[in-house]
Prior knowledge:
By secondary structure, this protein is an alpha/beta fold. The chain folds into two domains: 14-246, Type I PLP-dependent aspartate aminotransferase-like (Major domain) (Aspartate Aminotransferase, domain 2, 3-Layer(aba) Sandwich), CATH 3.40.640; 250-338, Aspartate Aminotransferase, domain 1, CATH 3.90.1150. The chain has helices spanning 14-21, 34-47, 58-69, 83-86, 91-94, 112-118, 148-160, 172-179, 183-187, 213-225, 234-246, 251-266, 290-299, 322-338, and strands at residues 2-3, 51-55, 75-79, 99-103, 129-135, 165-168, 192-196, 207-211, 271-273, 280-285, 302-303, 305-306, 311-315. The strands form three sheets. A seven-stranded mixed β-sheet has the order 2-8-7-6-5-3-4, sandwiched between helices. A hairpin with a 6-residue loop joins strand 9 (271-273) and strand 10. Helix 1 packs across helix 11.
Amino acid sequence: MIDLRSDTVTQPTPEMRQAMAEADVGNAAYGEDPTVNRLQERAADLLGMGAALYVPSGTMANQIAIAIHVRPGDEVILDSECHIFNKEVGMMSAFAGALAVTIPTARGTLPLDAVEEAIRPPSRSESRTGLVCLETTHNRKGGAVYPLDEMRVLLDACHSRRVPVHLDGARIFNASLASGFEVRDLVAGFDSVMFCLSKGLGAPIGSLLLGSAAFIDEAHRVQRMLGGAMRQAGIVAAAGLYALDHHIDRLQEDHDTASLLADALALSDRVTLEPVETNIVIFTLEGIGASEFAESMRARGVLVNVVSSRKVRLVTHLDISRQDAAVAADAIREALTQV
Length: 339
């Protein structure tokens, strides 16, 4: 079965499994796991940030960051279709007591004037704006990359009003390859950043939360509050280290296979295809339901993700070869013709 539902379905490579089997371990909650410590140091160095914390998931990393930045009753400004607002089951409200202020966007890029309008002036009778969150690449906007120049202008505007900014950079390395900018350039100026090891990088578990040394010191405390303090986590951290050393450049292969799938979709008049920048392909079907299309694809040996009644998502990853993409493209053409 060719699985295009998500880049979180990847299997560890044999070399990654070997690294995991041979990992030096210790009690990570005591700060004594050497492999976890190396992963955190490597991530902080790679992104040019003060320190990093290894946590089980990107959702946990985002929510730790929010809980540190805001006070209960504060508002968080974010894109109406971002992951934090749509796919983290309301945790920013349940855990941090934060209120979401959502702004619709075309491709996940927050309009500067809308953000400036949403930031509240100091008041004794209104909520305080506690945080602004950005996302790149954007999961629900077809893997869109947030333009660097617009990020920097927004960062300056928020910081001039003393509002911190968090970056959900789950697929930040995809953004780096697609934009041509180094990762440390993309994250420069952010008060906190998250990226995932378990998506395109292909590790089985884990994400990194990054910020200043003082921020990460506080993040350890909040991680424990969420039950995220780990013990001999070096076994899985070793997979993350291997991914950072061997799987970043190969992300370009995923972008190429996504383009191959997009080319097949573009030939059909039953499809409205969103721009494809990285490894995510999103399209809207005409005259056919997304669930019906997905069942037809499953019958042809291909799994896809149903986003809504008419919208479908495909995600390429390290377990999808060019041959797999070609087979999937043929299945797409058949399904669109016959269903």
